[in-house]
Amino acid sequence: MADDDTLPEYRTGSDSRTLRDALGCFATGVTVVTCFDSDGSPMGITANSFTSVSLDPPLLLVCIHKHSACASALLASEHFAVNVLQTWQQPASIRFSTRQEDRFGANDWSRGEFGAPVLQESLSVFECERNAVHEGGDHHILIGRVVKASFNPELDPLLYFRGKYRRLHFD
Ligand SMILES: Cc1cc2nc3c(=O)[nH]c(=O)nc-3n(C[C@H](O)[C@H](O)[C@H](O)COP(=O)(O)O)c2cc1C
């Protein structure tokens, strides 16, 4: 094991790359957060900042970078959906995190019951009403009230750890 003196360390004001690397040690799932913009076009962004907040009332949150092309649509939309990706949706994660592509073109999606785009074949889908938006530095903290949740118990999650996609490992 590495000596503590040689371990990477972030302090206030130092290189934010080290902070990103430290945060990247927290393994997560991967979601695509979707809504319709004011023209009725589907919008979506890959996000792993998803967290459950409360069961009663049923609340969740996702953090959206203020410079994201989706930010204004997500903040303006009454409804959004969080699509939790499964192992084989890695191409969707890449597509929804890359600029200038038609993100929905190659993805099977439909209009969800509560007016947000839903990606087919997702591990789980949370359809939400916008509940609150909080300031979070360079991100907006978007809180949704879950109005519908569905999941496929037979699928495995797409994971993200240290900047790479991973799969579950079973002993
Ligand atoms: C695995 C993964 C997780 C990400 N999580 C977030 C996130 O939680 N919030 C966010 O704003 N961006 C996140 N991003 C980056 C956005 O997906 C990306 O910057 C964005 O889609 C850029 O395009 P846009 O400005 O057109 O939205 C993530 C990217 C990847 C690959």
Give an overview of the whole structure.
- It is a single chain.
- 12% of the residues lie in helices and 40% in strands.
- The chain is mainly β and 171 residues long.
- The protein has one domain (28-162): Roll (Pnp Oxidase, Chain A).
- The longest helix is centred in the first third of the chain and has 8 residues, at 16-23.
- The mean pLDDT is 95.
- Residues 30, 45-49, 63-65, 68-70, 93, 97, 99, 160 line the site of flavin mononucleotide.
- Belongs to the non-flavoprotein flavin reductase family.
- This is Flavin reductase family protein.
Briefly characterize the structure:
With 171 residues, this protein is mainly beta. It contains three helices and twelve strands, in the order H-E-E-E-E-E-H-E-H-E-E-E-E-E-E. The strands form three sheets. The protein has a seven-stranded antiparallel β-sheet with strand order 3-2-6-9-10-5-4. A three-stranded antiparallel β-sheet has the order 1-11-12, with no helix packed on it. Strands 7-8 form a two-stranded antiparallel sheet.
Which key phrases capture this entry?
Flavin reductase family protein; Split_barrel_FMN-bd; Pnp Oxidase, Chain A; globular; mainly beta; binds flavin mononucleotide
- Widest sheet: strand order? 3-2-6-9-10-5-4
The CATH class turns out to be Mainly Beta
* Overall strand count: 12
Going by helix content, strand content and strand pairing, the class is mainly beta
Question: Percentage of helical residues?
Answer: 10-25%
CATH architecture: Roll
Can you tell me the CATH superfamily? Answer: Electron Transport, Fmn-binding Protein, Chain A
Hetero groups in this structure are:
flavin mononucleotide
Which spans have pLDDT < 50 for at least 5 consecutive residues? none
User: Biggest sheet: strands, sense, closure?
Assistant: 7 strands, antiparallel
Order of helices and strands: HEEEEEHEHEEEEEE
Any idea how many domains?
1
Report the principal-axis shape. globular
Please tally the helical runs, counting DSSP H or I stretches of 4 or more residues: 3
**Taking all residues together, what is the mean pLDDT?**
95
Domain Flavin reductase like: 23-167
Keywords: Oxidoreductase
Protein name: Flavin reductase family protein
Pfam family, one: Flavin_Reduct
